[in-house]
Design brief:
It is a single chain. With 93 residues, the protein is an all-alpha fold. It has one domain. Helix content is 69%, strand content 0%. It contains two helices and no strands. Helix 1 runs antiparallel to helix 2. It is elongated and about 60 Å long.
Length: 93
């Protein structure tokens, strides 16, 4: 039986996000909704310590994910151009 005080993992549904441009938006909305729920319910269900712990645990992961997304965005045009040139040449990738 799960505790009502358990803070959900915001990365749980990340595989459902299909477009790279939507990852940041999805992640921001997920974190914002958890933060909002936590602040509203903190007086009743969630102690402030758990909210601070959640923030400290996931802040570095969120930062790393944002760095990865930025690097990926920089490489997408190159990969598309490579795929287009291979297709024009008749090569199969």
């Amino acid at each position: 039986m799960e505790s009502k005080n358990k803070i959900p993992n915001p990365f749980r549904d990340l595989s459902k996000v299909s477009l790279f441009e939507e990852i940041e938006k999805w992640l921001f909305n997920k974190i914002a909704s958890i933060s909002f729920d936590a602040s509203v319910k903190s007086a009743f269900l969630l102690p402030i310590k758990k909210i601070k712990l959640f923030s400290s645990l996931y802040s570095s992961k969120i930062f790393e994910l944002k760095k990865f997304i930025c690097k990926l965005r920089m490489h997408i045009p190159f990969m598309l151009e490579l795929a287009n040139s291979c297709t024009r040449e008749g090569l199969v990738v």
